[in-house]
Amino acid sequence: MWALVTGASSGIGLCYAQCLARDYRADLILVSNQERELFAAAESLASNYGVEVRQICLDLAQSDSADRLYKFATENKFEIDILVNNAGFFFFDSYIRATEQKIESMLMLHVVTVAKLTRLFGADMCRRGRGYVLNMSSLSAWMPYPAIQTYNSTKAFVYNLTRSLRPEFRLKGVNVMVVTPGAVDTSLYSLSPRTRRLCVILGIMIPPEKLARRALKRLFAGRGRCMPGLINHIARPFCLMLPECIINAIIKKVSEKKWEK
Description:
The chain has a single domain, classed as NAD(P)-binding Rossmann-like Domain (Rossmann fold, 3-Layer(aba) Sandwich). The chain has 9 helices and 9 strands. The chain has helices at 11-24, 35-49, 65-75, 100-128, 149-170, 193-202, 208-220, 230-241, 244-259, and strands at 2-6, 27-32, 53-57, 80-85, 131-136, 174-179, 183-184, 205-206, 225-226. The strands form 2 sheets. It has a 7-stranded parallel β-sheet with strand order 3-2-1-4-5-6-9, sandwiched between helices. It has a two-stranded parallel sheet with strand order 7-8. α5 (149-170) links the parallel β5 and β6. α1 crosses α7, α3 (65-75) runs parallel beside α4 and α4 (100-128) packs parallel to α5 (149-170).
């Protein structure tokens, strides 16, 4: 059984890879644009869990990256049974001030590449009548807030794409699931280690290992959605009801120095 995990050199992606190797004995294809970390992760996983591990260093924000990754798998005769679309990044900025390159990279990585990989590998799974696709969205998919406008919009796309594909893929024996976590204890948010520990203790953040275990358990149980953490279920309706005046006040307070000319 082969699993392909994107963004697998660190953070949540590495935790998915570890869980798949340790708990499900899956052989792995790891994808990341962090070459040194990627090769270190592949070596560690193969050594610790006795599974076969291949790695491909690839920038998934490029327009042809999904096709290149699919070609790599098919030419090497890797039959992908599990696809984990995890690769992503985050920025917090005014839409006008954010660079065009940064916006385009996020759109390509979160939208185009995820959609193409789901279609390419999903089609093969549907033909075989089995398989699993896990797509990473975010609680921010329900947060129409300034400063994260590109991130939350792309994650809303991932959520709606996955939910829309689920009935179609289930008819073919393939389970498609979307994960919508809130804050996860990784370096994504550039917080200090002390702040991150406090957030985990308070339940504001979830450890990535815990997220990966829960998500994969639900994926293989045939579930369609995973939103780990009680606080996220509580927070979701409030994200939609927050008045615009409060949103604007918060954003101004947090980012006025960054936005000033």
